[in-house]
Design goal:
The structure is a single chain. 32% of the residues lie in helices and 21% in strands. The protein contains twelve helices and 15 strands. α6 (201-205) links the parallel β9 (188-191) and β10 (215-216). With 373 residues, it is α/β, with parallel strands linked by helices. α1 (62-77) crosses α2 (99-117) and α8 runs parallel beside α10. It has two domains: 3-119 and 356-371, Enolase-like, N-terminal domain (Enolase-like, domain 1, 2-Layer Sandwich), CATH 3.30.390.10; 124-344, Enolase-like C-terminal domain (TIM Barrel, Alpha-Beta Barrel). Strands 7-8-9-10-11-12-13 form a seven-stranded parallel sheet. Strands 4-3-2-15 form a four-stranded antiparallel sheet, with helices on both faces.
């Protein structure tokens, strides 16, 4: 179904996290998130820009995404007729980088198309292989090992099927040793967020004894060659995250044997169209994938659920319950996880949840409506 985007509304919200979240590059207490609402024929679609507050995960950050969307992406999309949301990314493809900003708008257009057709978002993107999503959790660096163990116990008791803990120099081997001692049988992985160098390979190799599912992105955010050398030294699979921004890079990494698993994040690759291409490349090489999280609101969380229905998402992802992060979410019915660690994929039109307009207005700190001159 062809559509013409008549209006784009940018909205920045601020929400405090229920508990701080710490990675190797800092601690986050609250989120500044840009939401994108696109309108055609009186119907709105929603997307979320997953960039962080600072340019630490990658080069994007919230305050920089706003002018990029307003001044460069929106003018190239407004008033243009699209046969499908799959064409939206091409309109801004000549803009170098800024994939999270561009991806937020692209995802909104997929949601719009699904709502115009009256079908679930997962169906619009060609998903549906999974009607329930297996859920894992990501636990940040804590103030003490005991605090970490307590959080893991809470999540295991809640039914989550995989535990990911953030690691960094000084918070790695001995911490994981204590976790394994307390929880010998859980599916466990470590996420380094690029905190190590190839010269640290012996330290990382020491993690082999703990039967981890994977070590996620141990080396630099833009590094593939060194990951290949490191993987050859490790028994534990390396999962690539930050360094995979396109299907082409995924193909290169797989060809070089730089990792055995890929984490796909919608924002990092610029939206659904490229995420599907990365998925397809990995599938063709028998490389499993899973969906990573970026502390999203319910809108971004729902988009991740739809993505996770593609067939090669065979490992538990970071798509967890709203209540793990937010006292109140921006959707009227929060994302919930069953006692056995599953999310049932919603069947309603679009991403399957309704936005809570009153609450959304209460946490909005700025907004701007863009129309074609």
């Amino acid at each position: 179904m062809a559509f013409v985007i008549e209006q784009i509304k940018l909205r920045q919200i601020e929400m405090p996290l229920v508990h701080f979240f710490q990675t190797s590059f800092g601690r986050t207490y609250s989120r500044k998130i840009i939401l994108v609402e696109v309108t055609a024929g009186g119907v709105s679609g929603w997307g979320e820009v997953t960039a962080g507050e600072n340019p630490f995960y990658n080069e994007e950050w919230t305050d920089a995404c706003w002018p990029l969307l307003r001044d460069y992406v929106a003018p190239r999309v407004l008033g243009h007729e699209f046969a499908s949301a799959a064409e939206v990314g091409d309109r801004s493809a000549h803009i170098r980088g800024h994939l999270m900003a561009r991806g937020g708008l692209e995802v909104a257009c997929w949601d719009l198309e699904a709502r115009l057709k009256g079908i679930p978002l997962y169906q619009a993107i060609g998903g549906g292989a999974h009607k329930q999503i297996a859920c894992g959790v990501s636990i940040g660096i804590q103030d003490s090992v005991d605090q970490l163990l307590g959080k893991i116990e809470t999540e295991v008791n809640a039914g989550y099927r995989r535990i990911k803990i953030k690691i960094a120099p000084g918070w790695d081997v001995e911490v994981i040793r204590e976790v394994r001692k307390r929880f010998p049988k859980i599916l466990l992985m470590g996420d380094a967020n690029s905190a190590y160098r190839l010269s640290d390979w012996q330290l990382l190799a020491a993690l082999d004894e703990f039967d981890l599912m994977m070590i996620e992105q141990p080396l630099a955010h833009d590094e593939i060659i060194d990951h290949a050398e490191l993987q050859a030294k490790l028994k534990t699979p390396i999962c690539l995250d930050e360094c995979i921004r396109s299907a082409h890079q995924a193909e290169q990494a797989i060809r070089m044997q730089a990792g055995r698993i890929i984490n796909i994040k919608l924002g990092r690759v610029g939206g659904y169209a490229e995420a599907k291409r990365v998925h397809d490349v990995a599938l063709s090489h028998n490389i499993p994938v899973w969906c990573g999280g970026m502390l999203e609101s319910g809108i971004g969380r729902a988009a991740n659920i739809a993505l996770s229905t593609l067939p090669n998402f065979v490992l538990p992802g970071d798509v967890s319950a709203s209540k793990r992060y937010w006292k109140q979410d921006v959707i009227t019915k929060p994302v919930e996880v069953s006692s056995d660690g599953l999310i049932t994929v919603p069947e309603g039109p679009g991403f399957g949840f309704e936005v809570d307009p009153k609450f959304l207005d209460s946490i909005t700190v700025r907004q701007e409506t863009i129309v074609k001159p």
